[in-house]
């Protein structure tokens, strides 16, 4: 488990413990840990250090905005086609949604993969 996961879980459990609960039961701790791990796994990566070249910095900002928007679309795709579905099965479920929102199916599937992994390489050749 990454350090950021541990610190996030620690903060959330401390907040919960200070909320007035008498004791933290196993189910509550399990739910807090699951949510924290999910949040860490699905969060987009932090932006890279800004460039000294204004043109590169502006282009990087555009790419970061596009990636953040795509991550949000990917989370929507995961609500409709959960992570346990293969791309083939997800395509069957997502075809209508993608058509309705004007997004090519391949972009929707790439956004879904990006939301699952947090790895921008999932977008190469489609969205980015």
Short summary of the structure?
This protein has 128 residues and is mainly alpha-helical.
Main attributes?
mainly alpha, 128 residues, flat, 5 helices
Write a structural description.
- With 128 residues, the chain is mainly alpha-helical.
- Helix content is 68%, strand content 0%.
- It contains five helices and no strands.
- The two termini are 29 Å apart.
- The model has no long low-confidence stretch (mean pLDDT 83).
N-to-C order of helices and strands: HHHHH
Q: Indicate the overall shape.
A: flat
Fraction of helical residues: 55-70%
Query: Which structural class fits the helix and strand makeup?
Result: mainly alpha
Query: Which stretches are low in confidence, meaning pLDDT under 50 for 5 or more residues running?
Result: none
Largest sheet descriptor: none
Mean pLDDT rating: 83
DSSP summary: helix tally: 5
- Any idea what the radius of gyration is? 18 Å
Report the count of strand segments. Answer: 0
Determine the N-to-C terminus distance: 29 Å
Could you tell me the strand content as a percent range?
under 5%
């Amino acid at each position: 488990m990454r350090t950021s996961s541990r610190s996030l879980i620690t903060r959330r459990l401390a907040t919960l413990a200070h909320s007035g609960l008498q004791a933290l039961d196993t189910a509550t701790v399990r739910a807090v840990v699951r949510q924290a791990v999910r949040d860490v796994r699905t969060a987009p990566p932090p932006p890279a250090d800004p460039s000294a070249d204004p043109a590169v910095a502006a282009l990087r900002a555009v790419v970061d905005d596009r990636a953040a928007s795509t991550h949000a679309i990917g989370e929507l795709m995961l609500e409709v086609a959960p992570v346990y579905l293969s791309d083939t099965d997800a395509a069957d479920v997502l075809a209508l949604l993608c058509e309705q929102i004007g997004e090519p199916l391949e972009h929707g599937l790439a956004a879904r993969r990006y939301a699952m992994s947090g790895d921008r390489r999932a977008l190469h050749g489609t969205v980015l």
